[in-house]
Each structure stands twice: as structure tokens, then as C-alpha cells.
Write a structure and sequence with these properties.
The complex is a heterodimer of chains A (114) and B (112). Chain A has 114 residues and is mainly beta. Helix content of chain A is 0%, strand content 59%. Chain A has no helices and eleven strands.
């Protein structure tokens, strides 16, 4: 049972355009959502997050939108740059037994073409 | 930089041999995690720790054990490695009062 889904394995956009990465979740107990970026042969790096009580969080070129009723979140990158080419993971946080755990999606590989 | 190192960074071993991976952090974070990353599966939680000698299982814990005898080190052991445990293993820490986890550089393990 996959609780966090990234249905697009890959996405290709032109430099300067907007990249939109999508994520759906099924568990209404998730209370925090995060996006990570991963380059080959490196560990994932934290990008941006959003609390379940908000619907938008912005940090420079990166904006995350949360639609709780639809159990959907998206990451917008504007403008996209070639250095943004990486695998992006959506993650959801849940507290169980007093400990917080993250559940990850399978990732979307973003390619930004010059 | 959350001060996380993993060792070894690469390892090739044979089926049936024991393997221990080490995660070391320098900032006394209470929470530490072990994940594996496989194509088509994203990151999956193996085990986690919420303090010295306090550990619990994640979603893919079968075949793995962990130990945390001091705050800075979290060890992942494959008692008898199998080819299905060929993967990239990531350690992560979580800072107190936040939901973000920060990852180490990973260990690529190949079981022949």
C-alpha cells in the first residue's frame, strides 16, 4: 500500500520555463510534507517543506502547494535551470509511537534542457 | 551540512557474509534513521533510533539489525547478506523540534 505517490517517473522542461512536480498521498494523518532533491551518487538534500495547516510555502524559485481536500501537493520551480536536473522525492511526515517518520514517494526525475 | 558520515562508501560482499554499515554524526542529534534506495521504490525506512539503545523497525526491517551504543554512531548490520540486499543505503538524522531529516552521502552495497 503506497501512501505517497509520485505518478510521473520523469519530467522534461526547457530552461526558463516552469517545472511542476506532483505528489498524492492517502493517509490523512500526515502532518508535514517535504521535498528532497537528489543528484546521482549523493544523499538526498532537503529542499522545501510545508505544514498541513498551510496551503503554500515559497522559498526563492521553489514553491510548494498543498491541497488537503484532494490529498495533493505540488512543487513549482520557476524559472527552471539546468542545475535543477535531479530526482525529486516527495515525503510525508507522521508521528507514530512518539517518533516521527517520513514516508517517501518513488521520485520524479526532472531534466531541464538548456 | 549536518555532519553525517557513512562508512564504507562502497562495499562488495558475497552472499551469506555478515556486513556492518556505520553512520556517524557529530552534532548529538537524538533521532537517526537507516533507509535503502532502490530503483522504482524510492527511499524505504529500515530501522530508526530515538536515543541510545532505543531503536525500532521500519517498513523493510527483515534481514537487518541495528545498534546504537552511543549518540553519535548508528550501526546497520546484515547478519547474512543476500542479493536482494544489494542497494544504496542512506543514514539520516532529524534535528530536534523540526520535521526535516538530513541525509548522509550513502553506502553502495553489492551482494554477489
Amino acid at each position: 500500500d503506497q501512501q505517497v505517490k509520485q505518478n510521473s517517473p520523469s519530467l522534461s522542461v526547457q530552461e526558463g520555463r516552469i517545472s511542476i512536480l506532483n505528489c498524492d498521498y492517502t493517509n490523512s494523518m500526515f502532518d508535514y510534507f517535504l521535498w528532497y532533491k537528489k543528484y546521482p551518487a549523493e544523499g538526498p538534500t532537503f529542499l522545501i517543506s510545508i505544514s498541513s495547516i498551510k496551503d503554500k510555502n515559497e522559498d526563492g524559485r521553489f514553491t510548494v502547494f498543498l491541497n488537503k481536500s484532494a490529498k495533493h501537493l505540488s512543487l513549482h520551480i520557476v524559472p527552471s535551470q539546468p542545475g535543477d536536473s535531479a530526482v525529486y522525492f516527495c515525503a510525508a511526515s507522521i508521528t507514530q509511537g512518539g517518533s516521527e517518520k517520513l514516508v517517501f514517494g518513488k521520485g520524479t526525475k526532472l531534466t531541464v534542457n538548456p | 551540512d549536518a555532519g553525517i558520515t557513512q562508512s564504507p562508501r562502497h562495499k562488495v560482499t558475497e552472499t551469506g557474509t555478515p556486513v556492518t554499515l556505520r553512520c556517524h554524526q557529530t552534532e548529538n542529534h537524538r533521532y537517526m534513521y537507516w533507509y535503502r534506495q532502490d530503483p522504482g521504490h524510492g527511499l524505504r525506512l529500515i530501522h530508526y533510533s530515538y536515543g541510545v539503545k532505543d531503536t525500532d523497525k521500519g517498513e523493510v526491517s527483515d534481514g537487518y539489525s541495528v545498534s546504537r551504543s552511543k549518540t553519535e554512531d548508528f550501526l546497520l548490520t546484515l547478519e547474512s547478506a543476500t542479493s536482494s540486499q544489494t542497494s544504496v543505503y542512506f543514514c539520516a538524522i532529524q534535528t530536534s523540534g523540526s520535521n526535516e531529516q538530513f541525509f548522509g552521502p550513502g553506502t553502495r552495497l553489492t551482494v554477489l
